[in-house]
Amino acid sequence: MRMTGYYFFHPRKEVITQLYPETPPQLPERFKGEVVMLHDGNNEHACTGCTACELACPNGTIKIITKFETGADGKKKKALDTFVYHLELCTMCNLCIVACPTDAIKMAQTFEHSVFDRNKLIRKLNRPGSKIRAGIE
Ligand code: SF4
Ligand code: SF4
Fold it and tell me: What is the pTM of this model?
């Protein structure tokens, strides 16, 4: 009651309530809301399908499905087919981001993930028609 009275008489001090959803919340820089894959304007990414992120994840949130592609030299090479991300399992620990040798993925600050069907939380992170950027090994 004492604190209620204090804030009643000092309404402009130490205001921590944010008017969400009327105004977008101010998230701290360290806030992590979702793993995403970076794509450039040419719909290219930096994922080699190496599975380091999958191995680093402590709870099986990531499943990397690979395929073989024929390179310009005629040799077959392993490549990413599908990056499956189970958002419903993710603890936002950041270990997969740290493990990635090519900075292909990052944590986004999205946070409105409520859905009626939990299958919608299973994401394919590589966009349709995307491919690996030239020069990424
Ligand atoms: S942030 Fe952590 S729990 Fe989520 S996918 Fe990456 S390693 Fe797994
Ligand atoms: S996102 Fe990074 S660590 Fe994961 S498979 Fe792709 S290149 Fe490897």
Answer: 0.86
